[in-house]
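> tool_call: predict_assembly(chains=two)
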Amino acid sequence: MAIDLFRIDDRLIHGQVVVGWGQPLDLTFIVLVDDEVATSEWEQELYRMGVPPEMEVHFDTVEAAAAKLAEYQRDERRGALLTGDIETMTRLVELTGAIERVNLGGIHHRTGRTQRLRYIFLAPDEEKSLRALAARGVDVSAQDVPAARPLALHEVLSGDGNR
Amino acid sequence: MSESEPSTPRAIVAGHGDFAAGLVSAVGQITGRGEVFVPLSNRDLSAVDVERAMRQHVESLGLTVVFTDLPAGSCTMAARRLQRERPSMVIVTGTNLATLLDFVFHTDIPAIQAAQHAAEKGRAALAATGGTPSGN
């Protein structure tokens, strides 16, 4: 079973993840990878309050998550790994070489970004990073909720996903 | 003497999609007091943008109560971040129509107390009836 979903979402733990993906995938643990959250007890408590008590949450730095990924992948339960930005996921991919699929779940508006989908806005350097991930063989697609059709990276970058 | 006029905004209702707009619309239809709430949707907003929008309402209107939908939702997360700076703020999660209806009729007490009372009403309104196999 292990980690079924490697997701980039700037909201990290929220309704779409806990309920939208959590219920159909029967997720029982979440690995939240964020260097700042991993060192803030208050932030961790905030995110813990958002999940049902039966769902486990691990807070890791990128380095810690990379070191523990094989262990997470051996878990017999189903889980999701979340990062809040492309850079963090890219570092994790580079450190582990063991992530085959990345889901773009929510990268929202910020100065310098261009809208690609309703829920995906990208800056030029972020697009470059995503292309580099794909060039490494990582299957990158956008899908906010399980019921939506996954959109391949080329559809995201071309804006075809909006048609 | 009432604590505030019925039509003065006293709380934010925040959630996914049209959750807030729908509930506030229903409150307006039933009581004519929809203006008591400021609806906020997190649709297509980052966590930072949700918090910014909520903060703007809280600060400009002096609000101390936020009603949200899911405990895990980004609106609840944003409200909790604001609550960290304002410990007296009240957040009610799992909001339903009964909750808001109770709140709008308690303008004679401070909004914080009205929210706590409304949460109890909302909880009490949740029920499942029926389910008896036919023929029994």
